[in-house]
Amino acid sequence: xxxxxxxxxxxxxxxxxxxxxxxxxxxxxxxxxxxxxxxxxxxxxxxxxxxxxxxxxxxxxxxxxxxxxxxxxxxxxxxxxxxxxxxxxxxxxxxxxxxxxxxxxxxxxxxxxxxxxxxxxxxxxxxxxxxxxxxxxxxxxxxxxxxxxxxxxxxxxxxxxxxxxxxxxxxxxxxxxxxxxxxxxxxxxxxxxxxxxxxxxxxxxxxxxxxxxxxxxxxxxxxxxxxxxxxxxxxxxxxxxxxxxxxxxxxxxxxxxxxxxxxxxxxxxxxxxxxxxxxxxxxxxxxxxxxxxxxxxxxxxxxxxxxxxxxxxxxxxxxxxxxxxxxxxxxxxxxxxxxxxxxxxxxxxxxxxxxxxxxxxxxxxxxxxxxxxxxxxxxxxxxxxxxxxxxxxxxxxxxxxxxxxxxxxxxxxxxxxxx
Length: 419
Hints:
Low-confidence stretches: none
Number of strands: 19
């Protein structure tokens, strides 16, 4: 039996594409291997957003090249777009390159031809159960000055709304309980029926027991009225991830983010108008030209909005981006110090947010069932939840349960299932 290895680096898009490739190969009679020893095919799905992820991908490519002929290696994703020549130098000119701009249909067709297996229609991978990942927008045209994605993923391309709704309906009928719509700037989505909110409203009218949410909206393309409409939908998860990046108007302008702090405050205020909803964000520390005053403005914004979670990154140059050529680079020591200060603020806020849930109860979607009695899931407002089953009841993955919360930490909530 032929064997294969799929190695994935990076974002939710890559997880979706890799899962789709894995299921196609398994249906064709391939067996997934944990090692490169005597493997028949290697697929490396890469990320270039962070230098560390990119270097790991090229390192693994080097390992694969010592174990497998280059003609049996597929190098795909963002790094495949940006540095094809490096991949060929490492693995050989016969390595198969699939650029990050390729959609799922093209990826599956290319892998199918290389692996000599039967064609496969794009479908939601069951291995992601109980979450159905559905691609809505591919590519990006916002051109934030620090970001490599527009070069790596190409111009924006929107999925057909009828296809999206059919995928969602089929997923619900097959037992999926969470629909996750994906797009680099997902609220730039447009179709004949309107924009993103109109599509989400159509999704909300589908029959079945399910939740849905989406990643990631861009504040420049979101209106307060749209947030308010979103919060009225029946099946939506009570959680908005709204990337801020910096609390300084000056830095936001240098980043080409196209919104001010006043704009962001209005959107965040709409989310915070309902205490059932959580708000999370992304922050970059140490962008070129960031002064002490700029950094303090970011700390103040984080405190003001009491974010329930923050994905905090240290700025690093990405080749070819406008920011990489900017003067006034912040010294690495200063970046590290600022990151440490803000990280403590973020951790304190996460603990405060989760501790406030103690004594209450939350609806939870079961994601993994623990053999020792501890089960893991996510609450409707996006928090991690670990719980014990009262009376040792068994709750399968994909079920909805009610959990009484008795402890909160920075990482999430802990409790006992009462249903």
